[in-house]
């Protein structure tokens, strides 16, 4: 055997040993299912821990609609017809127990709009009458409170939706088509979705976890079993799931809930600035995201804090700003009278300012994205 052949054989043998070692120690390959009795990866423990916190909501409401006969002038002349007719409708949706002691349930506003009576059913079949604490159409968030609590409720822990990333695994739990509690899984497809024309304050999490009619108000959870979003909408020509669903981030829903519980409504604030997204050239120049201050109202909290037109807001209270919509949402849902710490850039230099949030109507600024 030649010397070169011996060297090649030795190298091949070493390569085989290295491959075997990598297989033995690789944490990924070590999790490959063993169908002969070993442990198989499953989401069941997370699902088992979180599904008791997700409830079905049955809503009874009275809605008004135009009377079709009223449009006919002959009928209007000879008959005493009401302009509108009132009818009772029933709908189903989902909700999430977030405070077991006080019985608070987070859900979507459109599930309980025009509510006259609601009944909540837990996973174990218990039924509770529910009182509407408050609702906010602008974010599509509402809060119910269960009546006649008898203990043994389970609240789901709240996560931090600012920490989730595109590609994270998520689980959607709800009551699609009124079938009963159903679990689906997928990933976070996109963040900060806006412009859907659904609500006034948009910062949706997009997911491909199946979300169908009846899932609205249900839970979007991470693999730690934490609530990261409230399912709210789908995009589908036929009304069913096509892999594009949306959820309100829990950080936004939590801020709304706190105000609904305290005031029964959301008291929005502003600091008196008009903002817009960074242009393509400006964003690419420094490879960062943020919101550009396009205008400042005279005498506003922002002007008093020293902010100027052209400043680029990078963070609010440590939360990085991706877009003008996100900044608008953060300021708008901050309680009036609170102070926020803004980090911004001016001519390439990093600065910061503490700004007091004023009432939304106190400083009118005529722009499409005002704060």
UniProtKB/TrEMBL annotation:
**Which InterPro entries does the annotation name?**
Chloro_Bact_Ser_Proteases, PDZ, PDZ_sf, Peptidase_S1_PA, Peptidase_S1C
UniProt GO MF annotations: serine-type endopeptidase activity
Gene Ontology annotations of biological process type: protein quality control for misfolded or incompletely synthesized proteins
Q: Which UniProt keywords apply?
A: Hydrolase, Protease, Serine protease, Signal
Q: Where is the PDZ domain?
A: 260-348
Signal peptide positions are: 1-30
rRNA-binding recorded as keyword: no
Supply the Pfam families for this chain.
PDZ_2, Trypsin_2
* SUPFAM superfamilies, alphabetized: PDZ domain-like, Trypsin-like serine proteases
Gene Ontology terms: cellular component: periplasmic space
What family name appears in the similarity comment?
Answer: Belongs to the peptidase S1C family.
This protein's name: Serine protease
Specify the species: Bradyrhizobium diazoefficiens (strain JCM 10833 / BCRC 13528 / IAM 13628 / NBRC 14792 / USDA 110)
The lineage, from the top, is: Bacteria, Pseudomonadati, Pseudomonadota, Alphaproteobacteria, Hyphomicrobiales
């Amino acid at each position: 055997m030649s010397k070169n052949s011996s060297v090649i054989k030795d190298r091949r043998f070493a390569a085989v040993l290295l491959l075997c070692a990598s297989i033995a120690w690789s944490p990924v390959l070590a999790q490959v299912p063993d169908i002969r009795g070993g442990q198989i990866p499953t989401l069941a423990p997370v699902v088992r821990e979180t599904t008791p916190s997700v409830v079905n909501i049955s809503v009874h409401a009275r809605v008004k609609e135009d009377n079709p006969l009223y449009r006919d002038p002959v009928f209007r002349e000879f008959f005493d017809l009401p302009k509108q007719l009132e009818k009772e409708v029933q709908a189903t949706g989902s909700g999430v127990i977030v405070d077991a002691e006080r019985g608070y349930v987070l859900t979507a506003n459109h599930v309980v709009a025009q509510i006259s009576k609601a009944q909540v059913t837990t996973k174990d079949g218990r039924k509770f009458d529910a009182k509407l604490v408050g609702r906010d159409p602008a974010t599509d968030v509402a809060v119910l409170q269960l009546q006649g609590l008898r203990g043994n409720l389970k609240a789901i822990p709240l996560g931090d939706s600012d920490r989730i990333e595109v590609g994270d695994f998520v689980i959607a739990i709800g009551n699609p088509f009124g079938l009963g509690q159903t679990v689906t899984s997928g990933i976070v497809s996109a963040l900060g979705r806006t412009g859907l024309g659904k609500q006034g304050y948009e910062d949706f999490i997009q997911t491909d976890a199946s979300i169908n009619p009846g899932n609205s108000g249900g839970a979007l959870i991470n693999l730690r079993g934490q609530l990261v979003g409230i399912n709210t909408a789908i995009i589908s020509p036929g009304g069913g799931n096509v892999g594009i669903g949306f959820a309100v981030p829990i950080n936004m829903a939590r801020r709304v809930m706190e105000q609904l519980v305290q005031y029964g409504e959301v008291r929005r604030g502003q600091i008196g600035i008009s903002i817009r997204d960074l242009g393509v050239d400006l964003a690419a120049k420094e490879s960062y995201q943020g919101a550009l201050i396009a205008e400042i109202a005279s005498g506003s909290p922002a002007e008093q804090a020293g902010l100027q037109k052209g400043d680029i807001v990078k963070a609010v209270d440590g939360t990085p700003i991706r877009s003008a919509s996100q900044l608008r949402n953060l300021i708008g849902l901050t309680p009036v009278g609170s102070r926020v710490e803004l980090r911004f850039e001016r001519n390439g230099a990093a600065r910061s300012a503490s700004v007091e949030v004023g009432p939304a109507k106190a400083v009118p600024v005529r722009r499409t994205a005002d704060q």
